[in-house]
Specification:
Elements lengths: L2 H8 L5 E2 L5 H11 L3 E6 L2 E7 H10 L9 H4 L13 H11 L3 E6 L2 E7 H24 L12
Length: 152
């Protein structure tokens, strides 16, 4: 299974911010849209990722306040990325190694979407459920060992 399979099901709604936006505004967008991350773009280029992890770390560092902090001060400026052709097993490994919950999907320099660890887990579970269903159907339809004898 590839990342493109997840994006096809998930859709392509993207939420972005710029590095010079106030962090408070980014937090408002995340809360309003009920999302856990924002892609940080600057002049069409991916420059970072802002997740609730970075927001919380920033707030703790600032003594519990957001203040006038800009997104650039809180964002992860070296986010993991993948392509739509990346295999899901590789994405899982990358996300687990870096404890990343969100990953931008890039094609060259174009942002194609964002996948979450939830999206990856759901795709794996759905695939396993389908496989289990097919195996159970195969077992149920297994040919009998004895041939039926016609009744007289």
């Amino acid at each position: 299974m590839k990342v493109s399979d997840i994006l096809r099901v998930k859709g392509n709604t993207l939420y972005t911010v710029t590095p010079d936006e106030p962090l408070a505004r980014a937090i408002d967008v995340m809360a309003e849209k009920d999302i856990g991350s924002l892609v940080v773009m600057d002049h069409g280029d991916l420059v970072g990722m802002l997740t609730f992890r970075e927001v919380i770390l920033c707030i703790v560092k600032n003594g519990g306040a957001v203040g006038s902090t800009l997104v650039r001060s809180a964002m992860d400026d070296h986010p993991l990325t993948c392509t739509s052709e990346t295999d899901l097993d590789e994405v899982r490994r990358m996300m687990l190694d870096r404890h990343a919950r969100y990953m931008p999907v890039m094609e060259r320099r174009m942002l194609m979407g964002v996948i979450s660890f939830y999206d990856v887990a759901k795709a794996v579970v759905d695939s396993q459920n389908f496989e289990n269903k097919m195996l159970k159907a195969y077992i149920r339809d297994w040919p009998g060992g004895e041939e039926e004898t016609p009744r007289s």
